[in-house]
Automatic annotation (TrEMBL):
InterPro entries: RNA_pol_sigma-70-like, RNA_pol_sigma-70_dom, RNA_pol_sigma70_r4_t2, RNA_pol_sigma_r2, RNA_pol_sigma_r3/r4-like, WH-like_DNA-bd_sf
GO function terms (MF aspect): DNA binding; sigma factor activity
Protein name, as recorded: Sigma-70 family RNA polymerase sigma factor
Keyword Transcription: yes
Gene3D superfamilies tied to this protein: 1.10.1740.10, Winged helix-like DNA-binding domain superfamily/Winged helix DNA-binding domain
Domain of life per record: Bacteria
Organism whose genome encodes this protein: Spirosoma endbachense
Origin organism lineage: Bacteria, Pseudomonadati, Bacteroidota, Cytophagia, Cytophagales
GO biological processes: DNA-templated transcription initiation
């Protein structure tokens, strides 16, 4: 019987345990599954693709070197998003490079053009896309980040709270305010 089906672990938990036990193929699979998504997430913080790639590389090297000492997780994506957010914010603070990027630039910089839907109508109507982008740009950065994690990364409230290092109610408030603003100004 396949090891995956013989335990009560989720596939993420099993893959993470294999990685922590030194399975290089599991580590490569984690990188392969999450690199593009993490890169896209990084473009929300910086236009500097070299910086984003360096932060990703450093984070993955750190994880490999510290794999015996890191905690388990039931969601690799959540763990990586939180780790990468922490890494890139530290690097931006260290180098004093800040600034959110507009969505068109983020798309142009991404190494992978397989984007998940943010809103279905954005992909089908150019004018709607420009209007929603303009409205999103008017939102505070934390609301933009919450929207990105919810609709691009498809994380639930609990995971968003962990990635953003805030409580669940704050995430709900950010999303509620952002969506109300978008509805009112649509």
């Amino acid at each position: 019987m396949n090891e995956l089906f013989s335990t009560n672990f989720s596939s993420d938990e099993l893959l993470w345990e294999r990685f922590k036990n030194g399975d290089r193929l599991a580590f490569e699979q984690i990188i392969s599954l999450h690199y593009a998504s993490l890169f896209r997430f990084g473009t929300r913080y910086s236009k500097d693709t070299g910086l984003i790639q360096d932060c990703l590389h450093d984070m993955f090297v750190y994880l490999w070197e510290r794999r015996l000492h890191i905690s388990g997780t039931d969601s690799i994506k959540k763990y990586l998003l939180k780790s990468f957010r922490h890494k890139i914010l530290l690097e931006l603070q260290r180098t004093q490079r800040r600034g959110w990027v507009d969505e068109d630039e983020a798309i142009d910089m991404s190494p992978d053009q397989n984007f998940e839907d943010f809103f279905v109508f954005i992909e089908t109507e150019q004018l709607s896309a420009k209007k929603i982008k303009t409205l999103i740009d008017l939102l505070p950065q934390r609301q933009q980040e919450a929207l990105h994690l919810r609709y691009y990364e498809e994380l639930d409230i609990e995971h968003i709270a962990q990635v953003m290092s805030i409580n669940r109610q704050s995430v709900s408030n950010h999303l509620h305010k952002a969506l109300n603003f978008l509805r009112e100004h649509w």
